[in-house]
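Before a colleague's protein record goes any further, I have to sign it off. My question to you is simply how this chain folds and whether the tokens agree. I do not need a full report, just your reasoning and any doubts. This is what I was given:
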Amino acid sequence: MPGSAIPLGPEPQYEKVVSGYQTFHSPEPFECEWGGILPELNLAWESWGELSPERDNAILLHTGLSASSHARSQKQNQNPGWWEEIVGPGLAIDTNRYYVICTNLIGGCYGSTGPSSTDPITGNPYATDFPILTVRDMVSAQLLLLDHLGIDTLYASVGASLGGMQSLMIASLAPARVQRLASISAAACSHPQSIAMRFVQRQAVMADPDWNEGRYYGRSFPHRGLRVAREMGTLTYRSGPEWMERFGRKRAKNEVPRLDEDFQVESYLAYQGDKFCLQYDPNSYLYISKAMDLFDIAGQGDASGISSEEAPEPHLRAIKATALIIGVKSDILFPVWQQRELARLLEESEIAVTYVELDSPYGHDTFLIEVDQVGAALRGLLAS
């Protein structure tokens, strides 16, 4: 992090993953929920542990918006993964007992088919010709991988943030195939506050002249727009109390105030924005964040005006799995009332639910930082 004056704090571990994963290839056309067809599909995935002879010990990890399949270090990629202290031998998700799989989202840029991938029909990157994605599409691609691996039933489906949405979706889309689910810092649907935040972030990317309607590949990269989008996103990942303790009102340098980076918290946001621009594809950011906005598994109202009574499956009522819901009091991206609401809706559907609420200052990023508390709750679910 630039400048020794900026206090270091706990930070999630992410990297730009370009190798070390396996690739599942489906040559069949993949139909997306809102229309559009991908002529073929690639899904990057990694695994840890061994699949039991009965094929009944598989745990599927679902990632957040910008994470890769690299949840844990492994022989082909020894860098620490984003859940290095949760997944592994003897840890909460014990790879001595479970076969753990993590995929990169379709729409992503770490090995799975996304906007930066080559369209086999045109020979050019899909760019914004890529179809609109939904969480259901993401999970449908994962089910194709599970079919390929011969895994009929998941011991557990686990995810946080967007991953928590996927965990709910796969348990409702294929209820007979999921025994347990964990949804951390997610919700039954995206509410207007989080939709508005992501809309403004997308607007920042698309306002960059270098975005060029999404057709910037091989040209100037829309660095400024993505940087601002990530800076805004970072505001929603942590909490004010943590930043008060970590940065206070300290300025980065003892000099005349400037209009750009002046306070330590501003330098921190700029660093996070610049770092992200070196790792992630802007179009993936647009498509995946839009998928989060469209998510509504409780039928609480969408653009079609469908009521909960009329809503087609998948729906929360279809879930059969034992559920763990984790909320964080300081989360401003998915406020804790949304996890309370989700737990209540599951209970009303007569689903066995354990609700855990964490009192942590780290906001939405708590699932990446408070590994002891999150791990303890996951151990309880997996032992049930």
Observations:
- The radius of gyration is 20 Å.
- The mean pLDDT is 93.
- The longest strand covers residues 41-48.
- Residues 22-195+292-383 form a domain with the Rossmann fold fold (CATH 3.40.50.1820).
